[in-house]
Design brief:
The protein has 355 residues and is α+β, with helices and mostly antiparallel strands. 19% of the residues lie in helices and 31% in strands. It has two domains: 16-123, 3-layer Sandwich (Rieske Iron-sulfur Protein), CATH 2.102.10.10; 131-350, Alpha-Beta Complex (Naphthalene 1,2-dioxygenase Alpha Subunit, Chain A, domain 1), CATH 3.90.380. The protein has helices at residues 154-160, 167-170, 207-213, 286-316, 329-346; strands at residues 16-20, 29-33, 36-42, 48-52, 66-68, 71-73, 80-81, 87-89, 107-110, 113-116, 141-150, 186-190, 193-203, 219-228, 232-241, 255-267, 270-279. GO terms for molecular function: 2 iron, 2 sulfur cluster binding; metal ion binding; vanillate monooxygenase activity.
Length: 355
Amino acid sequence: MKDSGMKLIAPRNNWYPLTWSRDVTRALGCHRILGIDLVVYRSEAGEPIALDDVCPHRLAPLSIGKLKGDAIECGYHGMTFARDGRCIRIPGQPIIPPNARVPSYPLHEKMGLVWIWPGDPALADPALIYDLPQYGQPDWHAAHGDALRIGTNYLNLADNLCDPAHVSFVHLSTLGNAASEEIPVEHTVNARGVLVWRWINDAPPIPLFAKYGSFTGHVDRWHYYDYRAPSIAVIDFGSAEAGAIADPEQRDAGLRIFACHFITPVDDHSCIDHWLHVRNFALNDPDVDQRLHADFRIAFNEDKEILERIEQVDRARPGFKRIRLGIDVAPQRMRRIVERMVAEEAEPRAAIPAE
């Protein structure tokens, strides 16, 4: 298969989701982000730790070694590395060279995820990690989902998550129906993101809300796609009886869900979608958690299937000239924001101007 040459365009000085907190244990785990292979584990005190997954001696992965307290002993020759990446033991050699170390990375836990800062550690402020105000609040319930691996560049998934129009065709069994096909989308742009939205008024409910809302007639429904560069997309969607919400800012009056997509850019041609949802109904019903998870798995696997097929065609047809539609404006601006972030990181004065 030919390769279209699409490269991983992503700023390093940023917090990215690495994995679910529940999956980081005292066992050595392997993860990849931005093409970097990591060994990840918890300290004896329970703190997550990430080191470059390579011994600088013969390049053996540290993940096939052993934990010795909070340090890792390489499984090849026993070199041992502390949690900060410093070598603290070389069997049979009392002198440890100053360059005998591996990179370590700042980590922080929030919203059920371990987040990583791959760039300059001095800039890794946990306050910069995305925060959904409704998460953890008494009138809302959060349910953590899966880690869906998708064989495409993370920006292609970001395109999808800035695009309400596809829902009317891809997700007819869960998140969409034909009533939205001719409804245009609107958007706004700021320095770090794109907000894309539309309302579909006085129309049949989508299958998901028909199931959970017990609506007796038509509804007004909304989709707000809030993309935060470079790899976070939160979709605020819901429904209310037609005419029940006079002010669009009062969406809490209806059934409302935040579908959160926290994307790990793995390498040029793969990413991981860590998804969860936060809702304002059935707050103490674990059965609804599992039923909604099943619905979301159907929908998100539909996205996975089409994105991976597009990836295959894209790599087989390098240089293919695509046409652009009106619905492409927001995704194009999303990519422009990411390109600007990368340019500013490389050379602040060479920044790409905002649109």
